[in-house]
């Protein structure tokens, strides 16, 4: 969850939680790569 806003004006403060404008295909691809790296790290630990 990301809180964005301008200091001093509470009506301009907005909270976005996985809004369609802030989550795109690049974000999904980066999450997939992160999960792949974590899986490979876990797998390589078991080999040693």
Automatic annotation (TrEMBL):
It comes from the Eukaryota. Keywords: Membrane, Transmembrane, Transmembrane helix. The chain crosses the membrane at residues 21-43. This is Uncharacterized protein.
